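STRUCTURE:
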């Protein structure tokens, strides 16, 4: 029986519901800044989430609507400027308090810290986005809760490639059997599994329809006393409130 030493968290959709009401809005502000007639409504952005990475997402969209313009030499510079502006808008939105942690996330983080478990982050979003969310929700010392933060372009390929998880595990000198990943998407699940990590999935606004066969647990959240989580654990129906005790039991 393996011992659980660490929890590794995805960010967008896992720690907080950032995609629909955070990143999407920030992208649209960036498009308006530069006079583009692009606008991502909720369904469009949901479809584009199949592409991980903000720069990659914008380029794929551009290739759909105007492949000739997207192939021009200056396209990369425009994508980079859009992404810089989008990040600034997102950081502002988060700092204004518009996005909070998902129910149960703080509870699990605090229980893990109290028990001496190691915490880390593995995400495709930028370090600035991560820091803005953590500072706004956990306080100025929140980043210190996490031993390793794998974010943005730390590795050349984004999820579902397992590189970001492998990068985090290497820096923690940790074998994957001693950790759990917490994710919200099939791309994240594939990345974690590719690195050898067992994974607990808490589906979000954009991922509740996806299939997470193979996940250790597949739930609609971590739950709290007022609204317990529901789903399945190791293929069996489950309902309740997820804490460190449950994660340890499932990992064993």
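SEQUENCE:
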């Amino acid at each position: 029986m393996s011992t659980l030493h660490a929890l590794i968290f995805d960010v967008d959709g896992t720690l907080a519901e950032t995609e629909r009401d955070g990143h999407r809005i920030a992208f649209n502000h960036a498009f308006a800044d530069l006079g583009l007639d692009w606008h991502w409504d909720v369904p469009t952005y949901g479809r584009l989430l199949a592409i991980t990475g903000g720069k990659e997402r914008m380029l794929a969209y551009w290739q759909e609507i105007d492949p000739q313009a997207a192939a021009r030499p200056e396209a990369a510079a425009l994508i980079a400027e859009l992404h810089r502006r989008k990040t600034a808008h997102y950081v502002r939105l988060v700092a204004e308090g518009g996005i909070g942690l998902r129910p149960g996330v703080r509870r699990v983080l605090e229980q893990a810290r109290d028990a001496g478990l190691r915490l880390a982050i593995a995400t495709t979003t930028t370090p600035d986005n991560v820091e803005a969310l953590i500072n706004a929700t956990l306080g100025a010392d929140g980043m210190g809760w996490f031993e390793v933060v794998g974010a943005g372009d730390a590795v050349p390929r984004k999820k579902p490639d397992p590189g970001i998880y492998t990068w985090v595990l290497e820096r923690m000198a940790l074998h994957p059997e001693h950790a759990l990943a917490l994710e919200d998407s099939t791309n994240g699940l594939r990345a974690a599994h590719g690195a050898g990590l067992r994974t607990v999935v808490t589906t979000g606004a954009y991922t509740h329809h996806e299939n997470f066969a193979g996940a250790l647990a597949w739930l609609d959240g971590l739950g709290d006393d007022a609204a317990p989580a529901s789903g399945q654990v190791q293929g069996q129906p489950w309902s309740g409130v997820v804490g460190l005790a449950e994660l340890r039991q499932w990992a064993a």
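REMARK: DSSP finds ten helices and eight strands in the chain.
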